[in-house]
Amino acid sequence: MTEVTKVQELVYELKLRDVMKKDVFSVAPGMQMSELREIFRTRRISGAPVLDGDRLAGIISIEDFIRWLSDGGKECRISEKMSKRVETFYSDDTLVHALNKMEAAGFGRFPIIDRQTGGMCGIVTKGNIIEALLKELEIDFHEEEIRRYRASHIFEDIRADKSTLIFQYRIAGELSEAGTTSSGLKTTLKRLGFHPDIVRRSAIIAYEAETNVLINAKEGKMVVRVEPAEIYMKIEDKGPGIPDVEKVMEPGFSTAPDWVRELGFGAGMGLPNIKKCSDKMVLNSTVGKGTCLEATVDIRQPQ
Amino acid sequence: MLTRLAWQLINMDIKEITRILEADIVYGEALNREITKVAAADLMSDVLSFSKEGALLLTGLTNSQVIRTAEMSDIGVICFVRGKKPQKNMLELGKERGIPLLATKLSMYEACGRLYQKGLQGCECN
Ligand SMILES: Nc1ncnc2c1ncn2[C@@H]1O[C@H](COP(=O)(O)OP(=O)(O)OP(=O)(O)O)[C@@H](O)[C@H]1O
Ligand SMILES: [Mg+2]
After folding, report:
1. In this structure, what are the phi and psi dihedrals at residue A123, rounded to the nearest 5 degrees?
2. DSSP-assigned letters across all residues of B43-54
């Protein structure tokens, strides 16, 4: 069982009206096919609903347009070339209903109908749903990440119990401010519904790794992948590197200078702690190049 | 066996702790925390390596890293020993994270001794 329970909850709770795009560009059935060229090009869209008043008459896509062109491009009205059998959703449908149907249909842009009035009130794509969910989880996301989620078909996978979420953090700043990155990660993991012990162990790993980067390399990055079976964390820096990776694993070994010790670090317990909290840990380092720490926490069996 | 059972029944709230340690509540008057275990350390990685969820942390360190450490390891309450008062940004962070903060004039040794005498266990016991 994947533990992405918060996401699962949300896909049952949220309605399409919560996530749909409301101001939709549409075309009229009486418009000419040739007009579409400009519309698709300037608006950078790949299709549009065809509206007769507020009634949905069909959908015209860039594929329909290309087919029309290759058939000779004889001028005609959009209503003659549009697809009339359009799959739609109601605005009070749940996300899980929509995601199921999207997967079965193999495509992802659906007009939304208001059940009361029968008119079209919006449109929804997988991208809208993903964005809304991440926002709901208050997860900081970047456009690029959303594209990646989209590409990895996370929601089909959630039901198939193989989901991957990727979070990236930049580690930088004053040592006295250390912990912001790990705190963010901890909040996210909690929201995703993981067992407290798993959240705690992941947070300790992240925090110890974060402080090590700040002390020794000043900056670095952390990538966290939430997979069906494990949380995988990779913390990398381009700092001075470690001459003897076995030596630094000894409890109590520390090169921390006084200013670091004054802040409460330097017990030489960071790396041993990471090892204790993770189910697998790999430390790679090259002097002069940098350090890469990988740690995984098993999430299949909550303790 | 019996004493062990009896010990497990001992949990104290913040009020009780402040009485034993003659401590002030710097923040968290209204927060309710049940304490069953105690950790005492000045080095944060030590805290991270042995502390238990919900434990009381006794420490002489008063910067934000104490709060971060408590946050990561789910420490329930922090008490500063030797009359130290938390730094301002630390207090802010503590409030933000909802972690009660106490302050006692007692030394670390004295504070630990009193709590131990009252039956509170260290984090290494189960
Ligand atoms: N990213 C890194 N780059 C270079 N050296 C590192 C890095 N991480 C750890 N080290 C070296 O390994 C030593 C041990 O690290 P570890 O985290 O176990 O202890 P510490 O950071 O010294 O103290 P503590 O973590 O207990 O506060 C460090 O003192 C440092 O010399
Ligand atoms: Mg360290």
Report:
1. -145, 150
2. SHHHHHHH--TT
Contacts A–B by Cβ distance under 8 A: 70
Residues A170 and A122 grouped into a single domain? no
pLDDT tens digit string along A161-181?
334 677 778 899 999 889 988
Instruction: Note down the domain range covering A52.
Output: 11-131
Who among B61, B73, B74 is closest to A264 (CB)?
B61
d(CA B124, CA B113): 16
CATH label of the domain that carries residue A236: 3.30.565.10
C-alpha to C-alpha distance for A167 and A240, rounded to whole angstroms: 26
Going from the C-alpha of B61 to that of each of A284, A285, A291, B84, the distances in angstroms are 32, 32, 29, 8
Beta bridge partners of A237: A220, A291
In the numeric block, which tokens belong to residue A300?
A: 């299949």
Query: How many CB atoms within 10 Å of residue A244?
Result: 11
Cα A124 to Cα A99: distance, rounded to the nearest angstrom? 10
Q: What is the β-pairing status of strands B121-122 and B37-40? A: parallel
Residues A173 and A231 in one domain: yes
- Same domain assignment for residues A208 and A254: yes
A271 pocket-lining for ligand 1 (C-beta < 6 Å): yes
Supply the DSSP string of A178-233, one letter for each residue. TTHHHHHHHHHHHHTT--HHHHHHHHHHHHHHHHHHHHHTS-EEEEEEE-SSEEEE
Number of the ligand 1 atom closest to the C-alpha atom of A235? 1
Q: Is the CB of A102 under 6 A from ligand 1?
A: no
Q: 3-state secondary structure string, A23-50?
A: CCCCECCCCECCHHHHHHHHHCCCEEEE
- pLDDT tens digits along B87-99: 899 999 999 999 9
Give B54-66 pLDDT, tens digit per residue.
Answer: 999 999 999 999 9
Residue A122 CB coordination number (10 Å): 21
Q: Is residue A49 part of a domain?
A: yes
ipTM: 0.88
How many domains does chain B contain in total?
1
Looking up tokens 């303790």 gives: A303
User: Which residue of chain B is at minimal alpha-carbon distance from A212?
Assistant: B45
